[in-house]
Amino acid sequence: MLDFSFFTWDVFKGYVLSGLYFSFILTIVATAGGIFFGTILAMMRLSGIKALEIPATIYVNGMRSIPLLMVLLWFFLLVPFIIGRPIGAELTAVITFIAFEAAYFSEIMRAGIQSIPRGQVFAGQAMGMTYGQNMKLVILPQAFRNMLPILLTQTIILFQDTSLVYIITAHDLLHGFTVAGSNLSRTRESYILAAVLYFVICFSLSALVKRLNKKIAIIR
Fold first, then answer.
1. What letter does residue 84 receive in the DSSP assignment?
2. What's the chain's Rg over C-alpha atoms?
C-alpha cells in the first residue's frame, strides 16, 4: 500500500527544497543565457555575412540534432578530462543548458525577427541606422513582444528538462525526492510526489502563458 504520510514539511525542507531551488535557478539562468546567446546567433544567421552566418548555422543545427542528455554526459565526462580537473555537476548543468538552449532560443528569435515587416527595417536603414542599431532600437523590441509566449513556453520545457541533470548527480528537484525516498524507504511514493509537483508547477506556468498570450493578442 502507498503511504504518503512520511512527506512532512521537515522532509520537504530537508530533502526537496534545496533541489527545487537549484531547478529554478538553473531554469532562470539557462533561460537568460539562452535568450542572450540565442539572439546573437539569430542576428548572425540573418546578417547576410557568410563568415557569421555559416558558423552560427552549423552550431544551431548541430546542437539541435543532439539529445540534451548526451550533451550533458559529454560535457560532464570530457571537459574534466581535457582541462585536468572536475568542474562539478551543478556548473556542468548550467553551462550545458545555456549552450544547448541557445540553439533553440535562436530559432525562436529568428522567427520573431523575420515576423517584423521589412518596411520597418528599410525605414531604419533610410534613417542611417547601422545593422546593430536597427536591431537594437527597432526590430528586437517588437520581436521579443511577439515571441514572448513562445519564449515562456520554451522556458517551461526547459524546467522539465532540468530533471535530466539527475544523471550527473546534480542536486535538483528530482534528486531531492530520490534521496528522500531512498533514505525513508518510500521510493515509489517519492517519485509519485515528484511527478505531482512537476505537474503543478508546469500546469500553473502554462496557464499564466495562456493568459499572457491573450493579453498580447488584445494589444495587437
1. S
2. 21
